[in-house]
């Protein structure tokens, strides 16, 4: 057997082991960040519970000033929808699927490019005793085999989590600055 054949066999075995390991990874993922904002929940609600308000501080909108977005459906509430196309942040849509006004909103998040994904996004507002609000931003969804394989090389929590942290800081700036 030639050295080249041995190298190919070893390489194939390594790829198979990597794929086998990836298949054992969890079938779901979740990323969440929280931030205390010195503003009451009623000031934050229009910025979290309405898509136009959300896009004022959405970190992905800020990453691409040339993003092409469009709103569909109701102006606010369940059924409100926003779709975007961008060379920098991909293509997808966001739709409000549930709300508990002043407290929480649930959204369906669909990505088309750079890869297909079907996730859920949730925001929760929890008033604190001193009049501030703890805001949480969570995204979760299924992890198919390709996501599991990519997860071996990229930490989804760090990758997406840093964007969530930036977004929550943007929200804090608007809400605490009285521009909400």
From TrEMBL:
Write one Pfam family the protein is assigned to.
Polyketide_cyc2
Q: Which Gene3D superfamilies match?
A: 3.30.530.20
Organism's domain of life? Bacteria
Q: Which InterPro entries match?
A: Polyketide_cyclase/dehydratase, START-like_dom_sf
Name the UniProt record assigns to this protein: Polyketide cyclase/dehydrase/lipid transport protein
């Amino acid at each position: 057997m030639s050295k080249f054949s041995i190298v190919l066999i070893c390489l194939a075995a390594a790829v198979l082991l990597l794929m086998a390991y990836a298949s054992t990874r969890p079938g779901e993922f979740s990323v969440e960040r929280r931030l205390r904002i010195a503003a009451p929940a009623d000031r934050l609600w229009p910025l979290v519970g309405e898509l136009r308000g959300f896009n004022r501080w959405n970190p992905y909108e800020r990453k691409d000033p040339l993003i092409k977005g469009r709103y569909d459906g109701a102006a606010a509430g369940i059924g409100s929808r926003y779709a975007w196309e961008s060379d920098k942040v991909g293509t997808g849509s966001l739709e409000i699927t549930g709300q508990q006004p002043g407290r929480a909103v649930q959204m369906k998040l669909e990505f088309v490019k750079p890869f297909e994904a079907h996730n859920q996004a949730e925001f929760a507002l929890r008033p604190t005793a001193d009049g501030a609000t703890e805001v949480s931003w969570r995204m979760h969804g299924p992890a198919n085999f390709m996501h599991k394989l990519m997860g071996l090389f990229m930490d989804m929590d760090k990758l997406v989590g840093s964007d969530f942290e930036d977004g929550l800081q943007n929200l804090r700036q608007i809400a605490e600055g009285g521009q909400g």
